Amino acid sequence: MTPDNKPLEPNYAIILSGSPTFDHLCISLLPQSIWDNAFVIAVDKGLEFAAENNSRVDLILGDFDSVHPDILKKYPNVAMESHPVNKDRSDTEIAIDYALDRGFSRIFCLNMIGGRLDHDLFNRLILLKSPGKIWLISSQGILVALLPKTQYTFEIPNETTFSLIPLVQCSGVELSGCEYPLHHVDLEISTLSLSNVSLGKVTVQFQSGHLIFFVDSILGLL
Predict the structure, then answer these.
(1) Separation between Cα atoms, residue 109 and residue 87, nearest integer Å
(2) Is the domain of 29 the same as that of 101?
(3) Distance CA 179, CA 176 (A)
(4) CA dist list (Å): 187 to 76, 98, 145, 178
(5) Distance CA 178, CA 218 (A)
(6) Does 135 share its domain with 206?
(7) Domain contains 186
(8) Which of 62, 71, 90, 101 could lock onto 44 through a cystine, CB 3.0 to 4.6 A?
């Protein structure tokens, strides 16, 4: 997924977070071409997730209050950035800020869903730090925040389930290429835009607000 007429650049970061319920299936959702070109950050217990999936790691980041010390010893030659336990941001947010500061065009966040409810919710809302850049990749589906006044086209397979999730009132929503289109709708916080169905090429744009796109398959998005 990119805004129309803006091709995706091969400049990726992958963040492996430390959700206690390891989502091993999400590893295989990203194409190998992305893994081959990405800068991979393991966040605290996310290093154990990386080790269990034999994932390459370029940076280990966190306060290291949850990763087992023996796992850290297995990566003696990998760069490490340590942060205090008492701080104003979560380890995952620090990792995302690190990637944003270095100008990566896409930041793919894996193993971020599950665990304590407040952690889980913050990990979803953190998509709003940079709409369009931060993607939450899960075996349960994909989440990405969208920018207003930007037209997006999703070339996803026919009959793929997707949703538009308004976090506030979103004005002037236009949605086409689906079973339930919308034409200049002011979308309230409701389930009106839950569980739509793709007809092959979904186009969406809106004028203002905070809108998150969900799709249950990554096929056609990259």
Answers:
(1) 21
(2) yes
(3) 8
(4) 51, 33, 15, 17
(5) 17
(6) no
(7) yes
(8) 62
